[in-house]
Amino acid sequence: MKTLLLKTLLISSLAATPVMAEEVATGGNQERLQKMKERFKNVDTDGDGAISKSEFLAKAEKKFAKIDANGDGLITKDERKKMRKKFKKRHGGESGGEQFP
Known about the structure:
Elements: H1 2-15, H2 17-27, H3 30-43, H4 53-67, H5 77-90
Helix pairs in contact: 1-4, 2-3
């Protein structure tokens, strides 16, 4: 379960970043492009222009720890609900966290 959750977090937040940035660049949405660049830089901690496996996993661990409010190494239904609520609030009521039942 933890592996599946980590994979889901990683895929949703990082894996599509370069592709999405390129799509946004061609679509002319500069604000979104800037956010994607910032997200990439945030993960690329050594600034070499690439995301290593260790950088990728470090970001996932931070996200997991943030969702795991009580630090027990498990994400409960209540913790998932809180995460979805925070996501919706941050993103103007957009649906979020649907990958988490």
